[in-house]
Amino acid sequence: MKKLLVLYYSRTGNTERMAKAIAEGAQSSGNVEVELNYHVNAESLSSYDAILIGSPTYHHDLPIDFKNLLEEAAVQGISLKGKIGGTFGSYGWSGEAPKLILEIMKYKFEMQVIEPPLLAKYVPDPSMLNACKELGKRVSESLMNRA
Ligand SMILES: Cc1cc2nc3c(=O)[nH]c(=O)nc-3n(C[C@H](O)[C@H](O)[C@H](O)COP(=O)(O)O)c2cc1C
Q1: 119 with 91: CB under 8 angstroms?
Q2: Is the CB of 1 within 6 Å of ligand 1?
Q3: CB distance 132 to 101 below 8 Å
Q4: pTM for the whole thing?
Q5: Which of 86, 87, 1, 3 is nearest to 45 (CA)?
Q6: Does ligand 1 have an atom closer than 6 angstroms to the CB of 8?
Q7: Distance CA 96, CA 30 (A)
């Protein structure tokens, strides 16, 4: 069975709401193993077929945990080439973090990325949560269609 990781960081729960809706959408469409988590080891990244990372933006930057994770994966030479990648997150006014992570996925790890990132201003409203569910569904369906 194909595996999807929905990895997120959230201090005040906004990005977490998005992550849960994405995981729900992904689970609803069937035969994909969905893992919702806020911490994984770099070595484990290669075991997923798709990786969605949710990150709020604090101080125009991504959280240190994600910097460490992605640097560790790069240093260890972990190959994520061709895996589906996507990012999302809540923000207040600039929202750089999901864009920065998506760039790393695309240019460093050569993942097949879903552009643009899904961004919610502060608390995600019902239509944003719907868009999150749709994203989860879309990723899950493309995984099921892959050989
Ligand atoms: C100290 C602080 C710094 C922040 N810096 C930024 C920023 O640089 N750019 C931005 O778009 N939002 C910024 N925000 C807003 C957060 O991204 C926003 O509150 C978001 O909803 C937090 O998501 P979370 O609930 O998933 O942690 C900042 C918020 C705080 C409290």
Answers
A1: yes
A2: no
A3: no
A4: 0.98
A5: 3
A6: no
A7: 32
